[in-house]
């Protein structure tokens, strides 16, 4: 997995009525290779902003973000996979073609990545579903496909913004149980936003609690539980 080093990160949003919103106030954070970090906190505390900045989707107002010593502020990094609350699958493409989309966009060899895509499908329990269309799958299955798409490029860093947030409680629980073992095996560094403190503690080795107005890391907890180590 990748190492993430954030220092002095500030994000101010300019709103239409000329009021500045300080969403992130001087965040310092180092995420070690292969660690699984969960971010929790009330709505508006800056979780999504933090993740969007690390993903290079939103411009920082100040500060540095380094991924494996590469300064990435305001520039998307090639080795990041992202999963959002909604699966964002293209309904007119098959499951397999959805997973291969990042490969296609980068003009890499799509054919050569098919076995990898099929292996990922197997790992998330969707062996043989490659030729189905998203509309033929349940919400939980579609989110598993979205995770495969994020992993196809073997990203050093996997970013997830409430990936199970739209799922019903039973499906969510099943997903978490199934995926825990997968994360352990993959060894990607993971930054994971959730509203569920229970899933944060269950999945992560470290939990950051953020507080709003302005967005800060209020608590940085190491979860010390017997669990498979990466
Ligand atoms: P979540 O709690 O899931 O992050 P939010 O409701 O905070 O969801 O944000 C959802 C989307 O709306 C995000 O893309 C965020 O950037 C945007 N957003 C949040 N607050 C504002 C705001 N005050 N003005 C404009 N866009 C906003
Ligand atoms: P969270 O993900 O923890 O809910 P966000 O990162 O979405 O928090 O939002 C942090 C703060 O920034 C909130 O006050 C939110 O209203 C504000 N915000 C987020 N996105 C925007 C935006 N696009 N424009 C203006 N304000 C925003």
UniProtKB/TrEMBL annotation:
<comment type="similarity">
    <text>Belongs to the ABC transporter superfamily.</text>
</comment>
<dbReference type="Pfam" id="PF00005">
    <property type="entry name" value="ABC_tran"/>
</dbReference>
<keyword id="KW-0813">Transport</keyword>
<protein>
    <submittedName>
        <fullName>NitT/TauT family transport system ATP-binding protein</fullName>
    </submittedName>
</protein>
<dbReference type="InterPro" id="IPR003439">
    <property type="entry name" value="ABC_transporter-like_ATP-bd"/>
</dbReference>
<dbReference type="InterPro" id="IPR050166">
    <property type="entry name" value="ABC_transporter_ATP-bind"/>
</dbReference>
<keyword id="KW-0067">ATP-binding</keyword>
<feature type="domain" description="ABC transporter">
    <location>
        <begin position="4"/>
        <end position="230"/>
    </location>
</feature>
<dbReference type="InterPro" id="IPR003593">
    <property type="entry name" value="AAA+_ATPase"/>
</dbReference>
<dbReference type="InterPro" id="IPR017871">
    <property type="entry name" value="ABC_transporter-like_CS"/>
</dbReference>
<keyword id="KW-0547">Nucleotide-binding</keyword>
<dbReference type="InterPro" id="IPR027417">
    <property type="entry name" value="P-loop_NTPase"/>
</dbReference>
<dbReference type="GO" id="GO:0005524">
    <property type="term" value="F:ATP binding"/>
</dbReference>
